[in-house]
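# nightly structure sweep
# worker-07 picked up a monomer target from the shared queue
# config: single-sequence mode, recycle default, output format = structure tokens
# input follows
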Amino acid sequence: MILGRIPFDETVMESINNLKPITDYDESSANKAIREMWEFLKLKIKEEKI
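# output follows
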């Protein structure tokens, strides 16, 4: 199952250089994509448990 795609985002290099997770950068398109995939995955897990 493919949950989504993470777009190219210059902020990822900034997060690596600063030794911080990309999820610390609210303005990041990569962060947004990761969070959307996480929400989708949680929904799928919840559906399976019903």
